[in-house]
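Schema walk-through. Below, the input block comes first and the output block second. Nothing else is stored per chain. Lengths vary across the set, and this one has 107 residues.
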Amino acid sequence: FMHLHSSSKTGGSSAESNLWSDPFPIPAVPLDKDLSQLKKGDLLFFGHRARRGQPERVVHMGIYLGNKLFIHSSERVHISSLDPNSPIRDENRIQTLLRARRVLPGE
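--- output ---
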């Protein structure tokens, strides 16, 4: 897993900044209510939305596994769900999902 380290210069993580400054753009994946555009392997970014003059800040990331499941690590590896009705839902991650990016080629 790629660990994110905060960077006070950019207001975000150094990993996130490196992803956005890559000369080969990483396609954004639209996040609709049902997460229907996500595919296995998409990167999920979680954090705080921009507000009151503060920039958006990514603080966590995971990898989408399909069926609203994702794998992530925060001290230990977890498989969690973005489905609010799932017994393994992660309420915090549901509320803080900011964006998704596709790094694997399409099928």
